[in-house]
Specification:
Helices cover about 40% and strands about 15% of the residues. It has eleven helices and 13 strands. A seven-stranded parallel sheet has the order 3-2-1-4-5-6-11, with helices on both faces. Strands 7-10 form a two-stranded parallel ribbon. α1 runs parallel beside α2 (about 40-50), α3 packs parallel to α5 (about 95-115) and α7 crosses α9 (about 270-280). The chain is globular, with a radius of gyration of 19 Å. The termini are far apart.
Length: about 325
């Protein structure tokens, strides 16, 4: 397969590209290497990929309406896995325009490229954040998600709507993946596991929001990648039972699908911190704080559709995943 992976220098994109290359796919990675977090980490990931057979890299701003179609015209990818985005809930509170450019403008450019250059399947990253104010657990793709509580979440919901439009109008098969708190080696420095590990090693207190009454469906990176690959290989198809009288949000009469990828096992944040501290052999000092704007108290993924359609359910225990991250962190930062 000739596959375009956007966000290839990012956490998930890096691991996905490795996996695709290992199975013999030809991968073009695209990334703008922005400075939302330490560019050196992105460059270090990229250095692991460059020079490998089948891999090419294009530094590219996907919001560029001229450069993106030129890339599609030159590459002619059979499939696209779109992971590039401006991430982060809290950052969206102070930098809203970054999300418009990276998550909305860029996404319509990707859709247009797929439409005009015959891409057989677009798989793209959505987020568990789209569930917003929903409190019915576990979160299901068949639930309504019309109440986002951050601009980041709203842009991810918008991506799902935009994808459906292209699936309906142009019969472009699209599949959106709602990721649930991904963690593991080479992870993002703005994520909880990275922040907590760094603070514990430095003897600093950890800020724990909502007085510690938080739960997250932490999902290990290898499980995420397995799900992405299986979903990408299963080209989205219409649901013949779909009806406008009782519209199912997760499927359509168009070739359009949505899936949750989560561990299906929410973990209390205080327990998560204890697991990190144990893996480090250190004591964690906690500072309990109120809930932050845009945050949600819990996430919990219903993955029945993923299991049924592609035969996979994430299952890496939190203790094992954290240990692997800690081993990587100590080796990478030599601490």
């Amino acid at each position: 397969m000739r596959i375009l992976v956007t966000g290839a220098a990012g956490f998930i994109g890096f691991h996905l590209t490795q996996r695709l290359l290992e199975r013999g796919d030809e991968v073009c990675g695209a990334d703008n290497l922005n400075d939302y977090y330490d560019v050196r980490l992105k460059q270090a990931r990229l250095a692991q990929l460059e020079g490998r057979p089948g891999f090419t890299f294009q530094k590219l701003d996907l919001a560029d309406r001229t450069a993106v179609p030129e890339l599609f015209q030159r590459l002619r990818p059979q499939r696209v896995i779109h992971l590039a985005a401006q991430a982060g809930v809290r950052y969206s509170l102070t930098n809203p325009h970054a999300y418009v450019d990276a998550n909305l403008v860029a996404f319509v450019n990707i859709l247009e490229g797929c439409r005009h250059y015959g891409v057989e399947h677009l798989t793209y990253a959505s987020s568990s954040s789209v569930y917003g104010a929903n409190t019915a657990m576990p979160f299901s793709i068949h639930h309504n998600v019309d109440h986002p509580v951050s601009l980041y979440a709203a842009t991810k919901k918008a991506n799902e709507l935009m994808a459906h439009t292209y699936s309906h109008l142009y019969r472009l098969p699209t599949t959106g993946l709602r990721f649930f708190t991904v963690y593991g080696p080479w992870g993002r420095p703005d994520m909880a596991l990275f922040l907590f590990t760094k603070a514990i090693l430095e003897g600093r207190p950890i800020d724990v929001f909502n007085e510690g009454r938080m739960q997250r469906d932490f999902t290990y990176i290898d499980d995420i990648i397995e799900g992405v690959v299986r979903v990408s290989d299963r080209v989205a198809a219409p649901n013949p039972d779909w009806t406008g009288q009782q519209p199912d949000p997760g499927t359509s009469k168009a070739p359009y699908r949505l899936y949750n990828i989560g561990n299906n096992n929410p973990v209390e944040l205080l327990h998560f911190i204890d697991v990190i501290a144990k893996a480090l052999g250190k004591t964690a000092h906690k500072r309990l704080l109120p809930m932050q704007p845009g945050d949600v108290p819990a996430t919990y993924a219903d993955v029945d559709d993923l299991k049924r359609d592609v035969g996979f359910q994430p299952a890496t225990p939190i203790e094992e995943g954290v240990r692997r991250f800690v081993d990587w962190y100590r080796a990478y930062y030599q601490c």
